[in-house]
């Protein structure tokens, strides 16, 4: 099928979009552009200014293969091998959750506290539980030069991806990774503990969108019988790793605000903020230890 794709940029983009549209891919224009630009090494500007620009046969074959994968249901960013998050280009791997725009809400929610702590104390120590690609920690490090972070994950593959991202972004000197089942191997105290834990109830996994269910790692999705197991672990154990004036920030499912708040309050925390995502849903909760 590769020879059915045109060998010049403008027609190639149109043909790729048409193929995705015929397969009822949700956003065929965007996905076609991302695939063609990435694999041909071209830009939007080139497509407009020089639509007759030649694309070599190797790139066309790679584009054809990528289109087939997209039509088969694989998310476009998995095909490309990277995704942008908070202005940072992050590499993906099969062991990592694909970071999504709603999680930027967590970065924005905790960033003022990170900045204030760094300004006041000369540094801000961050613990990122279930770090995956390193998205949350690396976004905070990129915004606050005096911040340092430890990314914790149970997956060695995820940790390798996070460290690779730190190196590629020039942040490796302020980022370290630790293989640990939540707090099991963690030591020291932190000003901020952040987490986007698995929060889908086990029974609901099969009802997720195909692109999530089939391509995101299940252990990054499955939050136990009721989707709340990780929050119970974090709430029960975080106090031993949190500085006196520290904060915990967690991403939640859009229906979980009351349940997660109750879990942390029962463990001795006070709510310190609710932040809404792009759709207006309560997405991030911040807690502090209740003062005696």
Automatic annotation (TrEMBL):
Substrate binds at residues 196-199. One of its GO terms (biological process) is methylation. It is an enzyme of class 2 (transferase). InterPro entries: DNA_methylase_N6_adenine_CS, HemK-like, N5-glutamine_MTase, PrmC_N, RF_methyltr_PrmC, SAM-dependent_MTases_sf, Small_mtfrase_dom. Residues 12-81 form the Release factor glutamine methyltransferase N-terminal domain. It holds the Pfam family MTS. S-adenosyl-L-methionine binds at residues 130-134, 153, 182, 196. Its EC number is 2.1.1.297. Residues 123-203 form the Methyltransferase small domain. The keyword Methyltransferase applies. PROSITE patterns: N6_MTASE (PS00092). One of its GO terms (molecular function) is peptide chain release factor N(5)-glutamine methyltransferase activity. Methylates the class 1 translation termination release factors RF1/PrfA and RF2/PrfB on the glutamine residue of the universally conserved GGQ motif. Belongs to the protein N5-glutamine methyltransferase family. PrmC subfamily. NCBIfam families: hemK_fam (TIGR00536), RF_mod_PrmC (TIGR03534). This is Release factor glutamine methyltransferase. It comes from Mesorhizobium tianshanense.
């Amino acid at each position: 099928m590769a020879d059915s794709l045109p060998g010049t940029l403008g027609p190639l983009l149109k043909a790729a979009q048409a193929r995705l549209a015929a397969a009822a891919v949700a956003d065929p224009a965007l996905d076609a552009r991302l695939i063609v630009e990435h694999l041909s090494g071209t830009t939007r500007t080139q497509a407009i200014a020089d639509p007759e620009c030649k694309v070599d046969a190797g790139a066309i074959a790679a584009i054809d293969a990528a289109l087939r994968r997209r039509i088969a249901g694989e998310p476009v960013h998995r095909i490309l091998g990277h995704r942008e998050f908070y202005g940072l280009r992050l590499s993906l791997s099969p062991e990592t959750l694909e970071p999504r725009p709603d999680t930027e809400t967590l970065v924005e929610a905790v960033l003022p506290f990170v900045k204030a702590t760094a300004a006041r104390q000369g540094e801000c120590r961050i613990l990122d539980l279930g770090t995956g690609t390193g998205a949350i920690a690396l976004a905070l490090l990129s915004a606050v030069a005096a911040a340092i972070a430890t990314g914790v994950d149970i997956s060695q593959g995820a940790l390798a991806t996070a460290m690779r991202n730190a190196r590629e972004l020039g942040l490796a000197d302020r980022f370290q990774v630790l293989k640990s089942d939540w707090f099991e191997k963690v030591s020291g105290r932190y000003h901020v503990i952040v987490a986007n834990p698995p929060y889908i109830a086990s029974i609901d996994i099969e009802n997720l969108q195909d692109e999530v269910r089939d391509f995101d790692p299940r252990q990054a999705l499955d939050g136990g019988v009721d989707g709340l197991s990780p929050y119970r672990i974090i709430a029960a154990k975080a106090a031993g790793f949190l500085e006196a004036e520290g904060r915990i920030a967690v991403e939640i499912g859009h229906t979980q605000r009351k349940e997660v708040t109750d879990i942390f309050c029962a463990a001795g925390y006070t709510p310190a903020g609710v932040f809404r995502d792009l759709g207006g849903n309560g997405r991030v909760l911040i807690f502090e230890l209740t003062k005696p």
